[in-house]
Amino acid sequence: MLRILLFRLLQVPVVVLVVSFIVFLFLTASGDPVRLLLPMEASDADVEAMRRTLGFDRPFLARYGEFLLGAVQGDFGTSLRLRRPAIDVVLDALPATLELAGAALLLATLISLPLGIMAAVRRNGIIDWVATTVSVLGQSMPIFWLGILMILLFSVTLGWLPASGRGHWTALVMPAVALGWYMNALMARMTRTAMVEVLGQPYIRTARAKGLPQRRVVLVHAFGNARIPILTVWGLQAGAMLTGTVITETVFTWPGLGRASIYAVQSRDYPVVLASIALFTLIFLVINLLVDLLYFVLDPRVRRA
Amino acid sequence: MAEGGPLLSVRDLSVSFGSGAAEVRAVEGVSFEIGPGETLGLVGESGSGKSVTALSVPQLLPYPHARHPSGSIRFEGAELVGAPEHRLQRIRGNRIGMIFQEPMSSLNPVMTVGEQIEEVLQAHQGLDRPAARERALVLLRRVRLPEPERRLRSYPFELSGGQAQRAMIAVALANDPRLLIADEPTTALDVTVQAQILGLLRELREDLGLALMLITHDLAIVRKMADRVCVMQGGRIVETGSTAALFADPRHPYTRMLLAAEPRGAPVPVPAEAPVVLQAEGLGMRFPIRSGLLRRVTGHVQAVRGVSLSVREGQTVGVVGESGSGKTTLGRLLLRLVDGEGRIRFDGADITGRPRRALRPMRRAFQIVFQDPVSALSPRMRVEEIVGEGLRIHGIGAPGPDRTARIEAALAEVGIDPATRRRFPHEFSGGQRQRIAIARVLVLKPRLIVLDEPTSALDRSVQAQIVELLRDLQARHGIAYVFISHDLAVVRALADAVIVMKDGTVVESGPAAGLFARPRHPYTRSLFRAAFELEPEPADDPPQGGALPGAAPGPELAAPPQPAPTGTEGG
Amino acid sequence: MTDRIPARLRATAAAGCRMARTSALAALMAMATAVLPAQAQTVTLAQGVDPESLDPAYDTLISSVGIMMNIYDALVWRDAEGNVVPALAESWEFPQPDQMLIRLRQGVTFHNGDPFTADDVVFSFEWHFNPDSRSLLVSALRDFVASVEKIDDHTVIIHMPGPRATIVPTLVRVPILPAAAFAAIGSAEFGTRPIGTGPFRFVEWRRNEAIVLERNADYWRGPAAIERYVIRPVPEEFSRFASLVNGEVDIIANLTAERAGEVQANAALRVASVPSVRNMFVGLDTRRPPFDDLRVRQAMNHAVDKEALIEVILGGFAVENASVCTQTLFGAAPVEPFAYDPDRARALLAEAGYPDGFSVAMLGPVGRYAKDKELQEAIAGMLADVGVQITHVQPEWAEFLRLWREQLHEMLFVGTGNQVMDCDQHLGYRIHGPRYGRQYQSDEVDALIGQQMAEYDLDRRKAILAEIQQKVRDDAPWIFLFDNMDVYGMSARIDWTPRPDEMVWAYEIAVTD
Q1: In 3-state terms, what secondary structure has residue B148?
Q2: Which one of B170, B406, B409, C358 is most buried, counting C-beta atoms within 10 A?
Q3: Residues 6+ apart with CB under 8 A from A73
Q4: Chain A, 259-288: which have a CB under 8 Å from a chain B CB?
Q5: Distances (CA, A) of A240 to A11, A278, A281
Q6: Domain check: are C417 and C288 in the same one?
């Protein structure tokens, strides 16, 4: 276990290093942050002066090296746009993203698991049909499209939920559903598949032969085993959900990390881009670590290996 | 329940799966009774309907996909067919216990043994956790699981097959059932363990006055265990009677065929001047054990240690051992599918140090056939492609008619109609698939074939046919066999020489006739006794009989008497 | 919301909790009605982006400046029609052609209570020239302001590098900051909680969520009609629309043509539009073939059907204009547009030696202007009609700016805005001055531009500007397209007329009930 933990922790700097280099390279190669920053009437001399002020006149590797040196100490530099420490910019946006992703994760988990389990227990029944429909819809509707559809229905037509913003819990409903939608679909399908597989195992026959109530057979014996492969998908999806926040936060005007980072990319505010990527990476790895820990708790074969 | 009446009465029971055109009738008009304390053996080969019949009793078939078009099952006087689920739940695991073929997969892998016993106690007796735990401990002692306190906290994967089946029995017996249904309870176990488990069942049956419904394909087991026998074929009971009468005078041709299917015959003697095909000296194989933070190699498992053997042309060397004895690793070492220690000479040439690439041309001459014909044959390839693959790889014969002729000849030789060569493996039975697997190596005209448990997955009657085929091919082509098997009956019918393996080393070896007649090593003896006499064996599993102080066993769990030897029944 | 509920009502609500469910609901509804008049005084605007800073040196985006001008005043301001009016400067004169003497308004105080004096004016200008400010405006200011001299507490002189006829409207770009408070708060913090003399005081800024401003009761023009002004960044056009329909916001900026119809159809909403300061055009590189030939440039102008672009793609929200200057600007003169005449275009091309047309590349941004992609494609289609094949180069804005500087492409689709609302700034952007890409060169026009810069007489200056516009039109260095319109959607209860300078000045907003 300690090994896994150590491995995961060592992953953070390596991944950040590789990703940051690529991002750094890309951001340097396309677009000019200084030109973006200055108004149109700025003269070439003004541009050069700003370039020097920001240190853009120095060679690529020197700048990247300096970035790395700072990043190691948690200093990603100063946002070109906001002139605040880049790390502050992303940390300010983090709570909103965690709130959104957390709600989406909770929603997706709480809906998909019962749905998938019931679908597997009553195969070819009505619930199975519902689950199949949900997963087909969920996997074929892009977040953006779904978001617009929901806004149209619940905000514009019915006027039940706010179309944008953050603060009241009602504002969280639609973004969380949109963000969790795909994961819910995938998890429902995955849960069904895993449960169908497990329900065919000999130990389920044993459990029934023991005269246990159906509830216990399904929830304790079947789900107790099915949750291990489900957890794998859960972990992958929880990480993938971070990428979904970029779109969701834009559609629903959610003041989170996804929106902050996309805006930073557009304005070539590379310290903020790099800081948010580092943060995304960190969150991703924390989720992986969490999943590893859960394996440890849920699967005795891992625990005792 | 009427005093003195049968405990279980099955009348005119039929089972079908599916409906309409897809309906399959698995069991047809089966009737039998089991009295209190009686043991009924339900015998048949795979597909005979015996397991479906067994699962019908506690109504564990996948209803409504499965149906009972006719029949009644009365247990303790009450009808079970169509009984409401809540009533069945009160009977299952309580009045009727069940154990299954694969003890390992029949236990929930993520629950401890203790939890799995406790839950059945809690479900039916409403015991609280501590009481259930205490009772579970008593049960584990009752089934003679070593270190019961520790085993309560063990997970199934931490148990051996025999230990898992003991745990399974503890689960089945937790609530003092009147009937125990045992579906192939020992098939997946090694012979010595098999004997121990059967001994335990017999002992419990007598102590607890249990009725036992024993489902098996193994006539030897039935003969040892059952009071009465029902022989099933094609979903019907074709013959029924007391065990003694049935074995003495089988009436139905199928019963006779089953009895005749025990592997028979003896190997053809090999002339002393026959050249040595394969000679191996001091073969060994170690697997590293890694542990700690840096996964450093902290030790080794010696899978095979210092094994030497030689095989002559037309000779069969049997390699016998239980699971984990290293016999499969030995087979792989011999063919240099894995690299280990020791020297190997093939047709006099030392191939020990040769690089893999240099071995390739020689590969056609030494081949291997695996246990499971289902997974060994690619399901997406046609039979002719499977058989012809080796020809293509080794560039034998001209593509086209020449190769087709070779393929057809090989198929004909193993008894497969060459006209069926364009079919896929799933269109053939298990025995036919093993024949195809043999044809696949035969087409290369090999000098040596390593047969790794080639008959273990097959029914007895089919086994006998495969043994005949192998013997026939050997006589015709002078092929040398290394025959790896845990099945001593098959080895005895085929091998000229035998080596007995345990824990990676050879404990005894020599000519087959002498070794079978006078095994010298204690392990060999226990192995033979278990295989041919089915005696309970106190080898690595000492009985822990006697009342246990501190525990409060129920009356049925009172200290059992020591098992009496029953050596009078012949083997 | 709770903090604005009177104690009496809160007591009612608490009592309501003890009542049956229905009466509790009734109490809540009563409470809601009671609160409504207070809410009516809040007006919320949804626009595309959140400002980066509220320090005028940091952020020169027009959407950010629009917010700042509710908090700060400049020396001069513009009325709803775009005419320059006095603000913190009460009056001014030009003692020398390169000096502007300004008498400051007296009795004005900043939101923190500090009196407004000449020191604040001097500081507000000097801050841009201070390297610490890293002012983005400095390059624009440097051309107009050499130094600012305090004469007394209520008089300053602005020294210019030379005669600068457009110095007055340029002063709109320099909001006046409180010198003492700025020093006390520090430059880093000030931009996040600004203090000005403007009609609204700053309350809070939740980044990417909302900026909340509150009416300045002591405003020297008199208090604004509304109590609160909230600005919310809503980047997605559809979400802005939905928020408006839903009643979450009162005004939305950058309404698209498609959505405008829906807003118009909704009885609770209305659409308001105004010709803006932005002019769209397609630049032609006049220094190299094929656009070094006037006939080719004329042909290009005749080949594009501007009316179709405006009606079909922009839903009518644009005004055809063949002048270099947007028609809303001071000095803009109407010039005769090039008629849509593809036959004429083909004839001109043939005359110039391109009977079969030619192929060129057109650089244009995507996602920057309304319908930019569609417009570029439609223009290309029209040009293909006369034999000119267009290869599109359509990067996003940041990359566009970089490519623009490299001047690799013969054609350039872009627009120019105007912060001072004077024709001169457009000429600076597009012909004279440190513009992006000197693709058109006319000594005659350059001379005229220099002339009008020093001309303080408005009528004479207008005449020169008109001459310039006619000459540029005849030289056809661009495909002249149209002036954009700013389109707003708003609640019907909002009484407000959009301004041509792209700003929403909440002082002009009233609520009718």
Answers
A1: helix
A2: B170
A3: none
A4: none
A5: 18, 15, 11
A6: yes
Same domain, yes or no: C7 and C81: no
| Domains along chain A with CATH numbers | 2-72 (no CATH), 92-304 (1.10.3720.10)
> Tens place of pLDDT for every residue, chain B, 571 residues?
445 678 999 999 999 988 888 888 889 999 999 999 899 999 988 878 888 999 999 999 888 888 899 999 999 989 999 899 999 999 999 999 999 888 888 999 999 999 999 999 998 988 888 999 999 999 999 888 888 898 899 999 888 888 888 899 999 988 889 999 999 888 878 878 888 888 888 888 888 889 999 998 888 888 888 999 999 988 899 999 999 888 888 888 888 887 776 666 677 777 778 888 888 888 888 877 776 656 677 677 778 888 888 888 889 999 988 877 888 888 888 888 888 888 888 887 888 777 877 777 777 888 888 776 666 777 788 888 888 888 888 888 888 888 899 999 999 988 888 888 888 888 888 888 888 888 988 888 888 899 888 877 777 778 888 888 888 888 888 899 999 988 888 888 888 899 999 888 888 888 888 888 888 888 888 888 877 764 444 444 433 333 333 333 333 333 333 333 333 333 2
**Contact across the interface for C248 and A156, Cβ inside 8 Å:** no
The CATH number that applies at residue C421 is 3.10.105.10
Based on the domain organization, do C6 and C109 belong to the same domain?
Answer: no
Q: Do chains C and A touch (3 or more CB pairs under 8 A)?
A: yes
Q: Nearest-CA distance from C210 to chain A in Å?
A: 9
For residue C223, tell me if it sits in a domain: no
A299 touches chain B (CB under 8 A): yes
Closest among A33, A78, A261 to C136, alpha carbons compared? A33
Q: Distance (Å) from the C-alpha of residue C349 to the closest C-alpha of chain A?
A: 34
Which amino acid is located at B202 in the chain?
R
Q: Do chains B and C touch (3 or more CB pairs under 8 A)?
A: no
DSSP state of A33: H
Give me the half-sphere count of Cα atoms (radius 13 Å) on the Cβ side of residue B21.
Answer: 0
Domain count, chain C: 2
Using a CB-CB cut-off of 8 Å, the residues of chain B touching A206 are 98, 100, 106-108, 168, 171
> What is the interface pTM, i.e. ipTM, of the complex?
0.80
Q: What is the CB-side half-sphere exposure of residue B360 using CA atoms within 13 A?
A: 7
Tell me, yes or no, whether C482 lies in a domain.
Answer: yes
**Last residue in a domain, options C123, C153, C183:** C183
- Tell whether C7 and C82 lie within a shared domain: no
Alpha carbon of B372: minimum distance to chain A alpha carbons (Å): 20
Residues of A in contact with B112 (CB under 8 A): 300
pTM, two decimals, is 0.74
C129: CATH = 3.90.76.10
- Look at residue C218 and tell me if it is in a domain: no
Is C510 domain-assigned? no
pLDDT tens digits, residue range A33-80? 777 777 766 777 778 888 887 777 888 888 888 888 888 787 888 888
CA distance C71 to chain A (A): 19
Residues from chain B that touch A207, judged by Cβ atoms under 8 A, are 108
Q: Which residues of chain A have a CB within 8 Å of the CB of C46?
A: 164
Q: Collapsing DSSP states into helix, strand and coil, what is residue C311?
A: helix
With a CB cutoff of 8 Å and minimum separation 6, the contacts of A137 are A185
H or E element that contains C29 = helix C21-40
Question: Among residues C153, C183, C213, which one ends one of the domains?
Answer: C183
Of the candidates B88, B100, B157, which has its C-beta nearest A202's C-beta? Answer: B100
Edge-to-edge strand order for the sheet containing C147-152?
A: C89-96, C99-104, C155-159, C147-152
Of residues A30, A43, A250, nearest to C399 (C-beta):
A30
Give the DSSP H or E segment for B494.
helix B488-494
Q: Given its phi and psi angles, is residue A48 left (phi above 0), alpha (psi -120 to 50 degrees) or beta?
A: alpha
Q: Which site among C61, C248, C406 would you substitute to test the A interface, given the most A Cβ atoms closer than 10 Å to its Cβ?
A: C248
